[in-house]
Design a protein that fits this description.
- The protein is 52% helix and 18% strand.
- With 515 residues, the protein is of the alpha+beta class.
- The chain folds into 2 domains: 2-208, Hypothetical Protein Pfu-838710-001; 239-513, CHAD domain.
- It has an 8-stranded antiparallel beta barrel with strand order 1-5-4-3-2-6-7-8.
- α6 runs antiparallel to α7 (256-276), α7 (256-276) packs across α15 (416-435) and α15 packs antiparallel against α16 (446-476).
- The chain starts with a strand and ends with a helix.
Length: 515
């Protein structure tokens, strides 16, 4: 069985309007769902992509195995109905033996020492209001879940509230699910919750405020891949860095790395969509305007997150720690130091990712992945295939490298805005080369990519230093003159050193590319 659904967090003030919306759609079903989730103390099943639970639905018990979602909406699910009663039945993983995911589960549990290694790590107590409706020939179920996640701990029980909407496709087209999701987001200010109850319950049991950041790494296209295979692979690779990190940030609890990886994921998506632009759509694949619209939306969201990212970076740059230590060593004081700290930009990343614009982008990503035609990205590439994609990437990479080389002989002679533009071009070329490493063998060498990474890092540090200098200048003009003047001198010296280092790396790269 495959379960196709989306989950959304509900703003507390929208609970009643959303419940009224569900009532207007049909006859509401009410039930209480109490579940216990099982894993090893080391979370071995979760790392393997499994969620295993016993749930009481009304008076009956159901044992459920869930697998990972390959497209952000679809999950493998196997349910086994058990008896009725108040007492929870014993867990038995062999109940899933006939299911493909169950065979993998049994093998993993055997490796871990059998069922004795599985523990009840947390529980859920949910009151569900659900309704089924038909839209464009598809049957959909909407369920408003309200309740708590519960984890036993010393000295007392940990709890976390649950208030979310699930939209599940019972039959028909995923397009109907996505259209209904857009309507719900627009009407009630919902935002996608990519993190399952199992993940959030596990975080609660471990007293962890956030899941680890999903890394935005390259997923190189294979040689012989068609444009449609490349698009599917790109969208699938973007799911976790975008949806996973966005959900964690929107929850209001995140680390700076979540935001960094989200912005890197957006940029990788933008670069790769640009590589695919200009190719004719085949097999009902997305049109050029769809790719352009998705790229523009990703660019707009990334820019809107810049202020929150800059605040995170400035707070944890290596020189900020050194600067603070050097200032303390002077023994001087500045009455406005506290005011200066309060004047730093406040992060609004959670609000930005809950916005209608951000949610529209994430839903469009899911819609494109759902509708992308052609064969699976895992299908073997056709011998001699993918010629159109390969030639388009070769031509674009050649233009981007030529544009980069024409940016100037020396970095030291460039204005700050020109250095920033150079960094953007360099980053674009780096991500494109990483994406096409297997598609275009020989188009790069390890040494060239290493040089690009180093240059990218150096120019990024220069950009961060220039922002710190600008902030120090502003503070110097706002009666925080003593500490700001000290910071200006320190940062100017650091900036000059790093500028020389970046310039040397730049001249070395240009020289080698001319050979």
């Amino acid at each position: 069985m495959q379960e196709i659904e989306l989950r959304f967090q509900i703003p507390p003030e929208q609970r009643r309007p959303l419940l009224l919306w569900l009532k207007s759609a049909g006859s509401l079903r009410r039930e209480r769902l109490q579940a216990a989730y099982f894993d090893t103390a080391a979370r071995d099943l979760a790392r393997a992509g499994f969620a295993l639970r016993l749930r009481r639905e009304g008076r009956r018990w159901v044992q459920t195995l869930k697998g990972e979602a390959p497209d952000g909406m679809t999950r493998l699910e196997h349910n086994v109905t058990l008896g009725q009663g108040a007492a929870m039945p014993a867990l038995d993983v062999a109940r899933h033996a006939a299911h493909p995911a169950g065979a993998a589960l049994l093998a993993r549990v055997a490796e871990l020492g059998g069922e004795a290694a599985l523990l009840c790590l947390f529980r859920t107590d949910i009151r569900r209001h659900s309704v089924q409706l038909t839209q464009d020939g598809s049957v959909l179920e909407l369920a408003l879940d309200e309740g708590q996640l519960l984890a036993d701990a010393e000295p007392g029980q940990r709890e976390a509230p649950v208030l979310e909407l699930e939209i599940e496709l019972k039959s028909g087209s995923p397009a109907a699910l996505l259209q209904l999701a857009r309507e719900a987001v627009s009407a009630h200010g919902l935002w996608l919750e990519h993190r399952s109850k199992a993940l959030r319950g596990d975080l609660l049991a471990r007293a962890q405020p956030a899941a680890p950041p999903a890394l935005a790494t390259a997923a190189p296209w294979r040689r012989g891949s068609s444009a449609q295979q490349a698009l599917k692979q790109l969208l699938q690779a973007a799911l976790e860095p975008l949806l996973g990190n966005a959900s964690q940030i929107a929850s209001g609890s995140h680390a700076p790395e979540h935001l960094h990886q989200l912005r890197v994921g957006l940029l990788r998506l933008m670069v790769c969509l640009q590589l695919l632009q200009g190719l004719p759509a085949k097999d009902d694949g997305p049109q050029e305007q769809q790719l352009r619209a998705l790229r523009a939306a990703a660019q707009a969201l990334r820019r809107s997150l810049s202020a929150a990212r800059d605040a995170d970076v400035q707070a944890r740059t290596p020189w900020q720690t050194s600067l603070d230590a050097a200032w303390r060593a002077t023994g001087l004081s500045d009455d406005d130091t506290a005011a200066a700290a309060d004047a730093r930009p406040r992060s609004s990343a959670a609000e930005l990712l809950r916005s209608a614009e951000a949610q529209a982008l994430l839903l469009e990503l899911l819609a494109l992945l759902s509708s992308a035609g052609g064969s699976s990205p895992e299908s073997p590439p056709r011998p001699g295939g993918g010629g159109m994609l390969r030639r388009a990437c070769q031509a674009r990479l050649a233009r981007w490298q030529a544009t980069l080389q024409d940016s100037g002989k020396q970095i030291t002679g460039l204005a700050a805005e020109d250095r920033h533009r150079l960094r953007q071009r360099l980053r674009r070329l780096r991500y494109a080369l990483e994406q096409t490493a297997e598609l275009l063998p020989g188009a790069k060498t390890d040494s060239q990519l290493q040089e690009l990474k180093q240059l990218h890092q150096q120019l990024g540090e220069l950009n961060d230093l220039e922002q710190a200098l600008q902030q120090a200048r502003q503070q110097a003009g706002q009666q925080r003159r003593l500490q700001a003047a000290f910071a200006l001198g320190y940062l100017h010296q650091e900036h000059a050193l790093r500028l020389q280092q970046a310039d040397a790396s730049w001249r070395r790269w240009r020289k080698r590319r001319r050979r």
